[in-house]
Structures are given as C-alpha cells and as structure tokens.
Design goal:
With about 450 residues, the chain is mainly α. It has 18 helices and six strands. The strands form three sheets. The protein has a two-stranded antiparallel ribbon.
Length: about 450
C-alpha cells in the first residue's frame, strides 16, 4: 500500500495493484514537453493577474525549464505512484523549488490540464502529418510527370475496361490524399481552441485570463463551455476517423502495388529497400511494406471504434474512462506517420515497366467502347451500338483476334456504318487521347492537370 495522492478525505492508502492499474504515466510521457508548455503559460498568467506573486511565477517557470531539460536529456525518472505526467512534473517542481511549486495548480484541474496537453500535442503531430501528405502527393506527381507516355489498362471489377495513362492513375491517388489533407486541415481548425481554465468542470473562482494564455500557446481562441471543455474528445475521434480514411487510401494503393509487382502483372518494380526475401524460396521478392501498411489499416480502424465506444455512454463531465483515450490516439498517430514516411520514399523510387503495361492494355478489348462511340457518331443509337460491339467482341473471342486486328470487312459484318476511318479510333493512343475533357485521361488533359497542380 502507498499513500494516496489528494488523499485528505481517505483513511486508507491506495492498493499497490490499483495504483499500477490506474496509472497513465507509462504512455503519457510523450506529453511531458506539452504539459510544461501549458504550465509555463499558466504560471505567467497567474503572475500577470496577481493571483500569485510575479517572482513566484518566474521561479516556477525557471523550475519547469529545468525539468524540460531533464526530460529531453532522458534524466527524468517517472513514478507510477504519481499516476500521470502532470503529477510527476509537479512533484519534481516542488522537489526543486519548494512549496511555491504547489501554487502552479492554482486555478486549474488535471481535467483541463490534460485536455490542453493533448490538443497541443496533436496539433504538432497534425502539422507533421500534413507535411508527410504533401510529400506523398509530390511523389505521385513526380511519377506522373516521369511516365506521361505510359498507357496501362484501366479496370472495373478488376477486369480490363478502357486504356488510361499511368499518370492519370497516379493522379487519382493524389486526389485521395488531397482530400485527406483537406480533412486534416479542417480538423486542425476545430482542434485549435484552448480548454485550459475550465477547471474540473465548472470553471474557476480565480480571475484568470484565458484569452491571454490561449494567445501565448498559439490557439485561435478558447472553448466556450467548461463542462464540454473537459469532456470533449471529438478531436481525437475525428483524427482517428481521418486516419481511417487515409489508411484506407493507402491500403487501396498498397493492394495495387502488391498486384502490379507480382509476376502475373509485372507492371512495376519496387526498390529492394522496401522488399524482403523468403526463408525458403530464393527467387522471392516480397512487397512487405505495402502488405504491412495494408494490414495496419485494420489496427487504425480498431482504434477509431475503441474511441467511439469509450465515449458513447459517458455522462458530463470528466470520467476516468477517458484516460483510455490516449493509447488508441497515440498508436494511430505513430501508425499514420510511419506509413506515410515509408510510402513517400517507396513511391519516389518505384520503377514503372511501361512496355508491360502497354501489352496488357492492348488485350482484353479495351477499345470496345471506342467502337461503340464511333457507331453513335455515325448515327446509331447507343443501345444498338452496344449490341453491335458485343457481337464484335464475341467474334473476336471465337477467332482469337483483338479489335484493332479486324479487317474492315469483318467490322462491316456487324454494321455497315463502319468505314475505313474506324482504325483512327481503336488504337490505344486514340482511345486515351480522345478523352480530353477536364478530369479525363488524355495526355492533353493530364498535362493541364499537372500544370495546375504545380502552379497551385
């Protein structure tokens, strides 16, 4: 048994196992610098407002700076008995500067203290993740620029559908990650309000200046309701929701890279730096990085569900359950950062096998829709044109030919509207470059989009 923190009304010390079971210091250590950042601003405000003496505030700030130095140098010893990061720092502060260190907690609670710590921490992590996302977008744009002439099969239902530029395919993923950036930037706006000053749940009787502290800490403003301030974890849930969508996008791209790097497709080659071998099959080059990112997606989904379940039945205001918010959030942040970091480099170093992509695009009747569109331009209603081309494809299957290999006489067996100019429409280049409208796969359209992206 050990003595109990804040134990004036208790007659028994805390059970040793309960002490370990309820402590959060094991995973809260990453909040140390943010706890000190918030505490320094709070202490300076207490001095400015005359709540404590200015000299006391300066003494507290100097002590906090010393503790931060110890944390950064790895010299800070954290105690489970002190439960959390806040009490570990406060206890060290009192140990260093005496009882004046106890005045730091004036006008605040651990409830609003942890709320501001998490927001400060997550804000920095968001900025780092936004930077990774921008770099990933750049890697995809670079792939598109370097392979503008590469034509590949576009798929629906994983069946050959129509030919597209590989560059267009890469820019499709760039669109996904651009939306992820937008979502995360929106989240940052909602996150960037300061809860410090809400106290335990009802505010404080001391004449604090919340707006001044918010300005010092780089917040856009303060939260407007003390009950909500200490019980809100929407920002953590929203971050995990953003992360789930991002990881879904990464997982989709991972799946394509796994397929494309297989011997069956042979569209790309991943750098050896991002692959491993087999313990028994010496010929193997396994795409472990995209496979692992694909697998980690489920972990991030689980963290989102964990937080939603955690918060779904909690009454106002703070409840101890909310201590469980940090591990899912921290793990999600770590997973997202690691996945983005490795993808940025992997995409940049990926080699494209354009000849193999083109060969694949030339099979599977990928220009069949172009024949139908040709017939429509000649005056045939699309439904009838669809039937004409369907019969043409069946004939190709029976004769072992592809559409561009048919003679004019063979084409005219299915419609006498087809003339010699049909061959101007059924090549891969003609099919691709006919789709010039904004958002299309024509080289002209893709070049316009690349120009727009580079100038934005």
């Amino acid at each position: 048994m050990s003595s109990k923190l804040w134990g004036g009304r208790f007659t028994q010390p805390t059970d040793k196992f309960v002490e370990e079971f309820t402590a959060s210091i094991g995973f809260e250590q990453r909040l140390g610098s943010y706890d000190i950042q918030g505490s320094k601003a709070h202490a300076e405000m207490l001095g400015r407002q005359g709540i404590i003496a200015v000299a006391e505030a300066q003494q507290i700030i100097a002590g906090l700076d010393n503790i931060l130095h110890d944390i950064e140098a790895g010299k800070m010893e954290f105690s489970v008995a002190l439960e959390d990061i806040h009490m570990n720092i406060e206890a060290r502060l009192i140990e260093q500067i005496g009882t004046v260190g106890g005045k730091l907690h004036t006008g605040r609670s651990r409830n609003d203290q942890v709320a501001v710590d998490i927001r400060l921490y997550l804000r920095d992590e968001i900025d780092m993740i936004l930077d990774y996302l921008k770099k990933l977008e750049s890697s995809l744009i670079q792939q598109a620029e370097q392979n503008l002439d590469v034509i590949m099969p576009g798929y629906t239902h994983l069946q050959t559908a129509q030919p597209v530029l590989y560059s267009h395919h890469m820019l499709a993923y760039r669109e996904m990650f651009a939306r992820d950036c937008s979502r995360l930037s929106d989240l940052r706006v909602r996150l960037n309000l300061m809860p410090l000053g809400a106290g335990a749940l009802a505010g404080t009787t001391f004449p604090i200046d919340r707006e001044w502290v918010a300005e010092q800490l780089g917040f856009d403003g303060v939260t407007r309701n003390s009950l909500d301030s200490v019980s809100d974890r929407d920002f953590a849930i929203e971050f995990c929701s953003f992360a789930s969508i991002l990881m879904m996008h990464l997982s989709r791209l991972s799946e394509e890279l796994v397929l494309w790097s297989s011997a069956n497709f042979n569209f790309i080659e991943l750098s050896d730096a991002f692959c491993t071998g087999s313990s028994i099959m010496p010929q193997k080059k396994n795409p472990d990085v995209p496979e692992l990112v694909r697998g980690k997606t489920g972990r991030v989904y689980g963290n989102l569900i964990s937080l939603l379940t955690l918060m779904k039945s909690l009454p106002l205001a703070y409840n101890k359950d909310m201590q469980e918010d940090k591990e899912p959030l921290f793990e999600t942040i770590d997973t997202v950062k690691g996945s983005l970091k490795v993808f940025v480099a992997m995409i940049a170093e990926m080699k494209v096998k354009g000849d193999n992509m083109r060969i694949a695009a030339a099979h599977g009747f990928s220009t069949a829709t172009d024949v139908a569109d040709y017939c429509v331009r000649k005056g045939l209603p699309f439904r009838q044109a669809h039937e004409v081309v369907g019969k043409t494809v069946r004939y190709c299957l029976e004769t072992g030919k592809d559409i561009p290999e048919l003679s004019l006489a063979e084409f005219r067996n299915f419609s006498d509207l087809i003339e010699a100019d049909i061959y101007d429409f059924v090549t891969l280049e003609a099919s691709v470059n006919a789709r010039k409208a904004t958002g299309g796969t024509a080289r002209e359209a893709v070049e316009r989009e690349l120009c727009r992206l580079k100038s934005s």
